[in-house]
Amino acid sequence: MKTTSNLGLMKPEGTDVVDIENFNTNADTLDTTIGAMSTVPTTAKNIAGAIKEIHTAMSNLDTTISDGEITTAKLADSAVTTIKLAANAVTGAKMANSTVTATQLADGAVTSAKLADSGVSAGTYKSVTVDGKGRVTAGSNPTTLSGYGITDAAPLASPALTGTPTAPTAAVGVNTTQIANTAFVRSEVGDRSNLLTTTKTNVVAAVNELFQSVGDGKTAIASAITGKGVQSTGSDTFAQLASKIGSIKVGISNWNDGAPLMRSTGGFPYYANVFLSGITDNDNIAAWYSSGSTTKDTDLLDESGNIKAVTDTAGSSSSVDMCTVGNYVFTLFYSEKKVIKRAADGTFPASTTYTVPGNPTSAFTDGDYLFFWAYMDTSAGYVLYKYNPVTMAQIWSSNKIPQGYVVDILPNGELISYVNDNKVYWSPSDGSSLNMVSTLGYNQRGGMAFRDRYTAFYLRRVYDLSSGTAIDKWPGVTPPWGNYDVNWAFRTKAGELIIGFGSVVYKVNWDTGAVIQKYSIPISNNPSARINRKTGTIAVMNSANYAFFVTRIYEGGYPSV
């Protein structure tokens, strides 16, 4: 017996035996499959009517859903799934604007379980990207201002702040990397209006003004100290200026009562010819004598006239000259072409010998360097040399001229030389060119001093040499020494003209010949003198009655006339 393909109903064929139970079974199957029509939710309770009614309702779904028609009652739990919706089934065209609102969704209706993953990993983000529907499509955690897209904030490194930024005021005395605001600066620096300078609004300008004032004051003090015979400059420190003030020499209050420094004949040979050579910076007096035809002696005396040391310098030279530079004593030997240097200290008379070009003679100093003339054997003429007294290194040499005697060094370093043909030669400080500037008209070189290149005291008067010929600057003036030649003359550091004539020392005006001051010294009998241009000390000596007398005067502290 055959059966139907869907419900399995039995279909008897012509040869099949028909059993009533087969029909009953088919009836029960149909009844069970179709069910009770009275319970279907359609209006029609028969199959055909119900199907028609359902068909009509389904047809209406394709066109319009009435307001409020879809309710929770109409949807079974989990009824709406991705399987029920075709891809892109719900589009903007299918949904009216603002369709889904808070009133359309029951509380808790949409949960994380109901929503598909957005593609952004779960986590906490400081910066997110959101699409037009409010969905997070990307997330990040930036660490810089630019990462947040902030462009109007000052960077941590070298911020360029605008407006009036403020900061906490540090406590007075704080010395850290904390920001110093204007209140802190003012508390530390003080009120600028209380400055004693002319400038009160600018600290740098006030400091510069103070520095300039101090510099001007130091220069003025240095000038005054130099005027007292101790060379000083504005670049000296205050300690150096104080030390130099302490070294200013002050003359004896009454020269008539000033006893000479004296040493008896005990240290010198009988009938010795004694010559004063110079004064060291540490106030030792260098002298030498000749006794016989070959023996020469270099002596060092302290400021009381006592011999500190004696050295016998034997030689065949017929000419010896000496000079002091700083605290060194130099002895020149003409024939031997050598210079001996001794330090005026506890090592005296230890010496060092130097060979020099030519035959040295006529040594002198500007207080810092050793100068001497040297006769050159290879050709007639003399060359002037300048040496470093410490290292004895030659600094320069001049051109050759007839025999010269340097009688002065000007404050600017220029050199003035007198030669045997009664001419005056001038050279710049580098000795590069010795040129004749004037003819004196006298063939002597004693008692000579220069104020500048063209103003010279010579023998007894001051002359103007600017025309090339000596012109008397004191016409009609009779000086105290009359028409006699003076014994010695110096231009001091202060630019004064100091003249020695017998036992009287005069300070004289260069331009008028008027005596400014005068004083007596207990030395006469054709005295000679030497000056230390650094310390301003002048030593005057003579040798009489087989005794050696030395007295000292200074550029400062002269008594009035």
Automatic annotation (TrEMBL):
Origin: domain of life: Bacteria
Protein name as catalogued: Tail fiber protein
